[in-house]
Write a structure and sequence with these properties.
This protein has about 60 residues and is mostly helical. The chain is about 80% helix and about 0% strand. The chain has three helices and no strands. The longest helix is centred in the first third of the chain and has 25 residues. It is elongated. It starts with a helix and ends with a helix. Keywords: Cytoplasm, Cytoskeleton. InterPro entries: MZT1 (IPR022214). Required for gamma-tubulin complex recruitment to the microtubule organizing center (MTOC).
């Protein structure tokens, strides 16, 4: 498999993963747009505690 083919497969996989995560977030009514959701996923992938992100989102909802 060539490097270009590998890159294309990776891009398609990332797109599908991103769409799945976004669709799931919509089903769960998270009220996160694609950009915010991508930022949250990136933070979690880099070791941020998901519960801390959830609490932060809840505080923003309550405080307004």
């Amino acid at each position: 498999m060539s490097s270009k083919e590998s890159e294309k497969i990776s891009e398609v996989q990332q797109t599908l993963d991103g769409k799945f995560v976004y669709d799931l977030s919509q089903l769960l009514n998270t009220q996160l747009d694609r950009e915010t959701l991508a930022t949250c996923v990136n933070l979690i992938e880099h070791g941020v505690n998901p519960e801390a992100l959830a609490v932060n989102k809840l505080v923003h909802i309550i405080v307004g």
